[in-house]
Design brief:
Helix content of chain A: 40-55%
CATH architecture of the largest domain in chain A: Alpha-Beta Barrel
Distance between the termini of chain A: 39 Å
CATH topology of the largest domain in chain A: TIM Barrel
Strand content of chain A: 15-25%
Shape of chain A: globular
Number of domains of chain A: 2
Radius of gyration of chain A: 20 Å
Number of helices of chain A: 16
CATH class of the largest domain in chain A: Alpha Beta
Structural class of chain A: alpha/beta
Number of strands of chain A: 16
Oligomer: homodimer
Largest sheet of chain A: 8 strands, parallel
CATH superfamily of the largest domain in chain A: Queuine tRNA-ribosyltransferase-like
Strand order of the largest sheet of chain A: 4-14-13-12-11-10-6-5
Chain lengths: 374, 374
């Protein structure tokens, strides 16, 4: 039972519903990132108001601070964060690669130093499953090693085989509960054969959903789309597909068009904190002096508070004055933009007009925004 | 016409209503500070949700950035901030003393350097009135020189006489509009005779309300209360009285009991940003490890989101992880605490039981909180 129901397809693109212990998720879906059990700069009410259906939290960060047992003693993530809707937790593999200092891999797990205080920690598939259980994750991710980029085919294969070993161990250690999900993660870098072997290994184990990992690590959009073209068709139609850590609006459009259902990325929240807004006419940097005297809205097509309640020149002022409200309002706006983007894609899939919808979206963006995404 | 109506008194304490162009203000009232046209860490909806009736903004900060003419071109403070309720603007005198570098006073105004970029600026009573008009302030403050502390009686007298000259010039330059108010500011440091002379000078000019300035600058609560005891009875009963820059909950109780109607202070917002919470049982520092595992509410008697939706241990986590949501939630809580404090005082005045109410409040605080306020 995956509780995932496909409602419509348009080419490779899909619209579906994933039922979970904490409510339904309409796909395709973008999941805002709440690394340390908070979407930075947003109250949970504000996150809800953007239309977010599910948020991410990070095993790596939370095991170090405040600690998984501490989160459990505070009632779990849903209660602690006041977020009764679904929560997906990353398994920790990616952050150990990107954030921790000394780390030592072995067949059974990884020993690493905290980026906070240098203290030594160990993460195994079994402990990752236990931590995500303590956090009360709706969707648990199998522990993987996120393969470095670039990697030779031999390096990528060794890394992928370790992740597949850990995937089996994660599956065995995951505690089944109704409506709680375990997703496996396809690795194999940019090598189609390795991606195929990885996918077959995960299918043999059996998961509630399948993530595509190891992308958005520097390979570029064209290569990423090539990997998707080779990988996504291998995944079963009746399971949700999650592209981890992606991406810009243009990345999401390309991946949804290739049959991906779920996404997470820090781009909308991080960009918002630094003054960059995704709009119907492209990406704007609100710190730019050109906005100082602009008494029009940030984006006339957006219904968020930043756009409907304040002139653009005020947002500029808030960033120039380094006021918290600037990052708060732009984070809200960007998450609303991403939500509206995904809702628009879903509606277009349901109505069989995805191609025309995407063309209209892209026409609205400026050339620079459409090409760089940022 | 002051549009100020006394509804009840209890001893020297008063409950009233001030009618303005942007709505009514029930007094006694605490006004959250929004220095740069934003209450730090709060959306305007959140400020409204705390029950705030009126917020402050600062002439000094806004004339430097983004500039008064810029604010006017963006529709004025009310529209820019999405705050249709009353706004009081400080005249700039206090901030020039406390923030700017080189400054040179003369009979007609002050020339000073910006603390932002060292650029030279001049503020006169006429320009201060013009700026506050451009900002669209509901309540404009006369330009004063905030007398340094300590000051000899001669120094305090010279400073006060300059402020009275500027008060007359402010009155003459203020552009009258229905429901817009101009307040004068009593100076005179800690010297009762000077305070009396200053009050008489302001009364001869005539203002819509009277502020008591030059306090909370290091003289201590006992001296401040002595000054209030000597000054407040000189003020007309039919005009609102505003104690500038004050203070802790205990300061507010003491000043309300002495007949003050209006207050502003950065304490609740600044304390919230640094992890300190005012509660019914005193002041708590949420950064303290004692709160890490506490799954109870911050304050069981408070109805704000920080208290009703999250365990105390989560607030601790947010501050330890330096997440924006920590300051956001504690600012919200502290403003709600201050609002509930003022509502409670007002209700007690209306019911003629202020003394008993204050005794009950103080009994709830811990000794350290009641004595230091922080």
């Amino acid at each position: 039972m995956t509780d995932f129901h496909l409602i419509a397809t348009d080419g490779a693109a899909r619209a579906g519903i994933l039922q979970t212990a904490h409510g339904e998720i309409a796909t395709p879906v973008f999941m805002p990132v709440g690394t340390a059990a908070t979407v930075k700069g947003m109250t949970p009410d504000a996150v809800r108001a953007t239309g977010a259906q599910v948020v991410l939290a990070n095993t790596y960060h939370l095991m170090l601070r405040p600690g998984a047992e501490r989160v459990a003693s505070l009632g779990g993530l849903h209660r602690m964060m006041d977020w009764p809707a679904p929560i997906l937790t990353d398994s920790g593999g990616f952050q150990i690669m990107s954030l921790s200092g000394l780390r030592k891999l072995d067949a059974d797990g990884v020993t690493f130093r905290s980026h906070l205080d240098g203290s030594s920690h160990r993460l195994t598939p079994e402990r990752s499953m236990q931590i995500q259980h303590l956090l009360d994750a709706t969707i648990t991710m199998a522990l993987d090693e996120c393969t470095k980029f670039p990697a030779s085919e031999a390096e990528a294969e060794a890394s992928m085989r370790l992740s597949m070993r850990w995937a089996a161990a994660s599956r065995a250690a995951f505690r089944e509960r109704s409506g709680y999900k375990l997703f496996g993660i396809v690795q194999g870098s940019i090598y189609p054969d390795l991606r195929r072997i990885s996918t077959e290994a995960l299918l043999a184990i059996g998961f509630d959903g399948y993530a595509i990992g190891g992308l958005a690590v520097g390979e570029g959009q064209a290569v990423m789309f090539e990997v998707l073209d080779a990988s996504v068709p291998l995944l079963p139609a009746d399971r949700p597909r999650y592209l981890m850590g992606v991406g810009t609006p243009d990345d999401l459009i390309g991946a949804v068009s290739r049959g991906v259902d779920m996404f997470d990325c820090v781009i909308p929240t991080r960009a918002g904190r630094t003054g960059r807004a995704f709009t119907s006419s492209g990406v704007l940097n609100l710190r730019n002096a050109i906005h100082a005297g602009d008494d029009g809205p940030l984006d006339a097509q957006c219904d968020c508070p930043a756009c409907t309640r304040h002139p653009r020149g005020y947002l500029h002022h808030l960033f120039r004055a380094r006021e918290m409200l600037g990052p708060m309002l732009l984070t809200w706006h960007n998450l609303r933009y991403y939500r509206n983007l995904m809702t628009g894609l879903r509606e277009a899939i349901l109505q069989g007009r995805l191609r025309a919808h995407v063309e209209a979206l892209r026409a609205g963006w400026t050339r620079s925004a459409a090409s760089s995404g940022m």
